[in-house]
Amino acid sequence: MRRWPIALGFAFVALAAGVIASRGGGLPLRWLSGGAQSDVLDRYCVGCHNDPERAGGVSFESLDREELAGHADVWEAAVRKLRTGLMPPLGEPRPDRTVLDGFAASLEAGLDVAWARAPNPGTRPLARLTRTEYANAIRDLLAYDASAIASTLPPDATVGGFDNNAAALGVSPTLLEGYATAAMQIGRRAVGDRTMGHGETRYTALPGAAQRAPIEGLPLGTRGGLAVEHTFPLDAEYELVVSAAIPVGGWNNPTGALVYCDGPAVDVTFNGAPVAVENPRRIRLRVPAGPQRITVALVDERRCAGVNELYAGETGLGGAVQALTIIGPFDSTGAGDTPSRSEIFVCRPRSAAEAAPCAEQILSRLATRAYRRPVASAGREVAELMRFYAQGREEGGDFDAGIGYALSRLLVDPRFLYRFEREPDDVAVGAVYAIDDFELASRLSFFLWSSIPDDELLALAAEGRLGERAVLAAQVDRMLGDERSSALVENFASQWLMLRELDTVVPQDPDFDEDLRAAMRRETELLFTDLVREPRSVLTLLDADYTHLNERLAAHYGVDGVRGSHMRRVAWPEGGPRLGVLGHGSILTATSAPNRTSPVVRGQWLMQSLLGAKIPSPPPGAEADLSAEASESEGLVGDTVRARLELHRANPTCAGCHGIMDPLGLSLENFDLLGRWRDSEDGHPIDAAARMVDGTDLHGPQDLRAALLARSDVFVAAMTERLITYAMGRELESHDMPVVRGVVRSAGQEDYTLRALVQAIVASDTFRKRVKAGAAPAPN
Amino acid sequence: MPYLTKKHLSRRTLLRGTGAALALPLLESMLPAAARRAWAAGEPPARVAFMYIPHGAVMDGWLPAGADGELALGPTMQSLTPWRGSLNVVSGLTLPAAYVGEATAGANHVRASRCWLTCAPLDTGASPTSADQVAAAHIGQETPLPSLELALESGESIAYRTPTTPLPMETNPRVVFERLFGDGSTPEERAARQRQFASLLDAVAGEVAPLQRSLPAADRARLDRYLTDIRELERRLALAADSTLADLDVPDKPNGAPPDFEEHAALMFDMLALAWQADLTRVATVLVARELSNRVYTRSGIAEGFHNCSHHSEVPANIERLARLNEYHTRTTIGSLLQKLGGTPDGEGTLLDHSLVVYGSGMSNANQHDHHPLPMLLAGGARGVQGGRHIRVAEDTPAANLLLGVLHKLDVPLESFADSTGVMEI
User: Fold this and answer.
1) Does the CB of A647 have a partner CB in chain B at under 8 Å?
2) Which residues of B touch A57 (CB under 8 A)?
3) Do A176 and B165 touch (CB under 8 A)?
4) Does B418 map to a domain?
5) How close does chain A come to B287, measured CA to CA in Å?
């Protein structure tokens, strides 16, 4: 039971806080004054953080040591510095870790008790839906895949690590114009737009090595290519254009067409059935509306032997399917039977008299989902939608077009585009109140699904039961089990674990290609998916004894026996170097410079993202170029990145922070810029030895992992902070930290499973309540 | 050119070609009737663009040889030789606002681009509107779009209506196209959609006030912004109706951002030129890359990421490498735009004759994160601006003086702009 000692530590703190809290709020709390902890403060902190000196703008000298609530922000910052090892600074006297931990625990207990006397859940600021949330909401509302349309909306800015931060989710005329245009397009397309002109959709195949081998899910006997699920908007004809490699002669070389050998070189299947193609580049087909699966690949015939070799090295050019373009619709015969039409048209008017009641039925049902609140079919909201329905019919449209018009109105409504939480009039400023059940349903669905609540959540809210403890917990379990919870992987994990950075890095290494990038990303996503789907401790992220590999990634890691493009579970040997995400190519690559490793970036990422430290930026002019060519001028002559880095760290200005974060990164030096294992760099043996600020010696990734696990309380707290930041769409403040600790304590009783963390977050005041903001700031 | 249909390709070739005689009839037909009427009376209106390049420049390569006066283009700008007569290199400017605040490397980068057109320190209320938006407020009110914000890489905006309202910069040519020409395949369809769009805005505007009553004060203010934006869109819509956009013969839609940088840039400049030519807007900003971008420009022949490359540590070989990247950017961005503008007829001359384009950075030597002396280039001959000069300014002249000079040429009646200390006569 390696996690036992940590759980014990939390139990102690929880108990202490509990005892004091039970005594009631009136008694003076002497956490620091006169006691041993006060001595620690005087001895190790006040030497610099005193009134005359105010190092870093902080003085503890005249702060109230009995009542911590008055300066909770200062004390919380101190706790963070202590817990992440940034204080006391290097070179100053530093007591044993147990002393610092005890001191931090005592501050935390004091802060927690103060918070419990006057809990402050903060607020959830009004926010527009993100692009991702918008596309997901359309999917769940209309069974329509709007991701292509949503991708044309201006991208959302990332603030505090996440793109769902309310502060950044404002509007501008351009954005509003984008949302209105999207709403009109979606309204038309979802009901089947007979007037739509033909357009093009281009799907690009993964370039590079992927094109030289068979791809999972594509027909046997082929290599490379791509498979797409395309939603055809109407029953109509469509043209499929296959772009394959251009031979050296280029486009204009008439003999250099796309057939590399005799016979049909391109294999096209439509919903699994082969399509006969005379000219493999262009196919015209009549296709029923709705989603269809199409595959395109090169036929890997023996007669083609030599082609691969001929074009080897020209991965972008030689012998490869590059893209599939779908053009259409042409000669449409009808709107057909698409998932979105089935979802929308729950009734069909059989006569003119039935049209209006049917439209009301359709629209009140969709409006309830879209606005996340009950909408009565006779209500004002539906009347407004009916006005647009009538307008659509006036513009010469049929029943379907009228519904399409009304949908566009629904989708630009602020009640759809914005996440509102009402403020009751009868609550005093500064008072804390529970949000209503519908607001709770939205907080839940946007947190776990990045989308709107489903009918079950809305029904429970309507019954007023969603807030019941057992009902809420059961819903959280249901939602985590639902496939929509993959949003936690795609939106939370991908932003927290650098996967979005991985998408844009351009490592200067011939081994790197899109195939490898995709496999790296998938590896990390699949590990996080396991946390969502299985009762696993989040510490698995640090020490998973397995991972998911396909042939490409396995070869990259030097693992034998994995064939094909399918990612499957592979066990790591006990005590191996790659356990957990610290051995994932995704993170190791995303934290490297394009042409070398960056122990600084790796260390900084570990400190900030995994341990929750706040590290100040370097002073101006303090940046150093550690590439081999550049460093001479700075006197940083050394054979390896490590050697140059150590010279740079000898500078006392740099050492303050780098002395703390670099060792973490240096212990990963055996992983090169793409996360491959290496024993030497430019002929010099890798030295992955480093000493952490608390004196722990590291000799490589295994030791780093052990050190992080020994501080797993800090890791879990940092992850909890990220989760709450994501759930609330705002950056956390000092009044949120007691909640973070409460969640960690609670989840600790269930081995820190992700489910337990989510359950505790959802049960917390921060998630279920808000404070009425006003002129006077809320207490604490 | 896989990103354009064949039909567009041929037209685009026409647009790009230097054969003005061939291109002219088509271009004329693209002009909205209102614009044609207005220009028939006199000179075409002045247009203005601001194009930002991050990470400064190697100043030795950027600066012209010789002193003031006659312009002898430096190595970075050799590719601009054909337009030398329309160029002025302005040297010695500084960006004081970018020095204000946290003196960290990251913050210095952020401020370099954010202050470039605002010339105001972050987080202060002083003249928060960027120069392009000041221009848009004056000369952008007669066109359907007050301004157009384009980017060749997504990143923090350089255009600010207020300190907290950056205008998103669009990287997708298809989206730019739809903003300019609307969504619909026939004039009737476009007109019907415009009516739908107008009634949607109208309906939503009426929805906001009742909703606001139940909201916390801070949220109410946020929703106010939504309402303001609706009004602004309604105003634009009215203008679009006036300019008989429905008559516009528009080219086919591009499909998305080409992965190739040069293709992407050329496509965006095509749109910009078309928007100017059709008088859909008169103001534009272009972000070539974001500060701290580590993009690798494969066709430049330099395998290093941009930001990494900019930290040359004063090593001659590294400086040389960055200078080559500067040359590449100059050729493929401002060079490509000048070629487009110079080849597009407009009134009696070309678009280049009736525009002012400021190209430059909020950084100088990026290795030092210095904001002085800035690399700045002024191109175009609108309002009689003469080219072919190297304008060397006095020590400590803020960039705001140049921006104010440009604004004056656009008849913006401002006595000062942000931290300007005077008007640069251009």
Assistant:
1) no
2) none
3) no
4) no
5) 15
CATH code of residue B96: 3.40.720
What's the pLDDT tens digit per position in A17-68? 333 333 333 333 445 555 788 888 988 999 889 999 888 888 998 888 888 8
Which residues in chain A touch residue B4, judged by CB atoms under 8 angstroms apart? none
Helix H segments across A372-420? Answer: 380-394, 399-412, 414-417
Nearest Cβ partner of A422 from B214, B218, B317? B214
Contacts of A391 in chain B (CB under 8 A): 196, 199
What is the C-alpha separation between A745 and A104, in angstroms, rounded?
15
pLDDT tens-place string over residues A286-326 = 888 888 888 887 765 433 444 444 444 333 334 567 778 88
Expressed as residue numbers, the domain containing B181 is: 177-248
Phi and psi, residue A357, nearest 5°: -60, -40
Q: Report which residue type is found at B60.
A: D
B364 and B269, same structural domain? yes
Q: Is there a single domain that holds both residue B263 and residue B383? A: yes
Please give the tally of structural domains in chain B.
2
3-state secondary structure of B300: helix
Q: How many domains does chain A have?
A: 2
Of B106, B161, B200, Cβ closest to residue A408: B200
* Chain B residues lying within 8 Å of A623, measured CB to CB: 105, 311, 369
Say which of B218, B253, B294 has its CB closest to residue A594. Answer: B294
Q: Residue A280: give the domain boundaries.
A: 199-337
ipTM higher than 0.85?
A: no
Same domain, B217 and B99: no
Do both B90 and B136 map to the same domain?
yes
Which residues in chain A are closer than 8 Å to B199, comparing Cβ atoms? 388, 391
**pTM score over 0.95:** no
* Domain membership flag for residue B378: yes
- In angstroms, the CA B271 to CA A100 distance is 62
Question: Among candidates B48, B46, B150, which has minimal Cα distance to B403?
Answer: B48
Same domain, yes or no, for B293 and B151? Answer: yes
Contact B189 A195 (CB under 8 A): yes
- Give the nearest chain B residue to A619 (CA atoms): B104
d(CA A645, CA A515): 32
CB proximity A428 to B under 8 Å: no
- Distance, first Cα to last Cα, chain B: 40
Domain boundary residue among B220, B248, B276? B248
